[in-house]
Design goal:
Helix 6 packs parallel to helix 7 and helix 11 runs parallel beside helix 12. The protein folds into three domains: 124 residues, Rossmann fold (3-Layer(aba) Sandwich); 229 residues, pyruvate-formate lyase- activating enzyme (Alpha-Beta Horseshoe), CATH 3.80.30; 61 residues, OB fold (Dihydrolipoamide Acetyltransferase, E2P) (Beta Barrel). By secondary structure, it is an alpha/beta fold. The protein has twelve helices and 19 strands. The strands form four sheets. It has a six-stranded parallel β-sheet with strand order 2-1-3-4-5-6, sandwiched between helices. The chain has a six-stranded parallel β-sheet with strand order 7-10-11-12-13-14. The structure holds iron/sulfur cluster (SF4).
Length: 453
């Protein structure tokens, strides 16, 4: 496509990134490696010479969405301007060559560890008249020197502090897709965050497969607690948010730092997956019900205003009605402000996929809806209890419905996964964090007025 003799031509590139924020960072690293003298990034696929689909493949639903998106943009090759279709990320990493047979429309396949090789691979593809398959072992780890084009709004971003995972939960393919745990140095993360804050970022969301495992693979003894102590020293950083913590990695020291440091959002995302000891053991999770309840007590005692997000899997092989009822009762106890629910997805290559007593899809759906309904009642109650409080809100723009309403996110709402705040009175610029009095709420959203200071 980008044949040597046409090197001077400038190509437009559009990228669709699916899945989690960790995948989004990989996409931004890919864009960061496209030299502006040869490539122009466009948001409209119809205007793109090169379209990149950065895929997700950790469960069935995600795989289907990835395939649908690839086939959708492949239409631009048939009718439009697009001359090269690139598929990157978890789907090629997982399905390797068999994917090429399924998707003849695709010209270049790249893995989760190949983001920084994008130009080398585009040029190599140019010399080949058939699809190029370049999926290496997932060993890459970006750092503060890695070029990255931020795709999220100027005031907010994700920073990946580690890649891969060494936990091996029995239902999960991520260690196969992302490799084993590899953590960046504290210095590298601090340099990146400092540079981002200098460029106008106010909210930094720290991510990894398991942020509490940060540093466990390093010889310099780096730990999450030490990293946080350095990050809170960065001036003009307003909100530091922690996503994807593993329950037994949440130490008392970590809880103390979250409680004490104003810059660290009183917000924690701890996927628990279940509450029943037998199911947790079959999931190869390192915690049981007692440990989980002790953790919740420690968190609530030390950080009463904490916003707690978690996620559960329903329909895990062998899950009985009683075990599901135990999970439903646990959710009804009202421990969480936010809950994500997944139907167990039987993923080949995982230990759980080989287990007996796989649960019928109909039962999974019933349990999914029951748990979501129970949590929506809890969320509604918890949001209602915030009425009258004054909370910091990050103004993000105008509401989709009408530009008479500003919208934003409260410090209790993470980007892309939690609700929004609709601002009915007062004004502030986009990217500003201002005090807001909460006047009303729904399950997931808040309504309020900016408090003039
Ligand atoms: S902690 Fe478990 S569920 Fe999460 S990425 Fe690692 S193996 Fe998968």
């Amino acid at each position: 496509m980008v044949k040597q003799e046409t090197h001077l031509e400038k190509y437009t590139v559009s990228l669709v990134s699916l899945g989690c924020p960790k995948n989004l960072v990989d996409a931004e690293v890919m864009l960061g490696h496209l030299p502006p003298d040869r490539f122009e990034i466009v948001t409209d696929e119809a205007q793109a010479d090169i379209i990149i689909v950065n895929t997700c493949a950790f469960i069935n639903d995600a795989k289907e969405e990835s395939i649908e998106t690839i086939l959708e943009v492949a239409d631009y090759k048939k009718q439009g301007r697009c001359r090269l279709l690139v598929v990157s990320g978890c789907l090629p990493q997982r399905y390797r060559e068999e994917l090429a047979a399924e998707l003849p429309e695709v010209d270049l396949f790249m893995g989760t560890g190949d983001s920084a090789r994008i130009v080398e691979l585009l040029d190599a593809q140019a010399l080949s008249d058939k699809a190029l398959y370049a999926v290496s072992l997932p060993e890459f780890l970006y750092d503060h020197t890695t070029p990255r084009v931020k795709s999220s709004p100027f005031y907010s971003t994700y920073v990946k502090i580690a890649e891969g995972c060494a936990n091996h939960c029995s239902y999960c393919v991520i260690p196969q897709l992302r490799g084993t745990l590899r953590s960046r140095s504290i210095d590298s993360v601090v340099r990146e965050v400092r540079r981002l804050v200098e460029s106008g970022v106010r909210e930094v969301n720290l991510i990894a497969q398991d942020i509490t495992a940060y540093g466990a693979d390093r010889e310099d003894g780096a730990r999450l607690e030490d990293l946080l102590r350095e990050l809170v020293k960065i001036e003009d950083l307003s909100w530091l948010r922690l996503l994807y913590a593993y329950p037994d990695g949440v130490s008392d020291e970590l809880i103390d730092i979250i409680a004490r440091e104003d810059k660290i959002c009183k917000y924690l995302d701890i996927p628990l997956q279940h509450i029943d000891d037998t199911v947790l053991a079959l999931m190869n999770r390192r915690v049981d019900e007692t440990a989980i309840r002790q953790l919740l007590t420690r968190l609530r005692e030390r950080i009463p205003e904490l916003t707690l997000r978690t996620s559960f899997i329903v329909g895990f092989p062998g899950e009985t009605d009683e075990q599901f009822q135990r999970l439903l009762d646990f959710v009804n106890e009202g421990h969480f402000e936010r809950v994500g629910v997944f139907r167990y997805s039987r993923e080949e290559g995982t230990a759980a996929a080989a287990m007996d007593a796989q649960i019928p899809e109909r039962t999974k759906n019933t349990r999914y809806h029951k748990l979501m309904k129970a949590q929506s009642r809890v969320s509604f109650r918890k949001n209602r209890a915030l009425k009258g409080r004054i909370e910091p809100v990050l103004v993000e723009g105008y509401s989709e419905e009408t530009d008479l309403l500003l919208r934003g996110r409260s410090i209790r709402q993470a980007p892309d996964i939690d609700g929004q705040v609709y601002i009915t009175a007062g004004y502030a610029d986009i990217g500003e964090i201002v005090p807001l009095r909460i006047t009303d709420s729904s399950e997931y959203d808040l309504i309020g007025e900016i408090v003039e200071e």
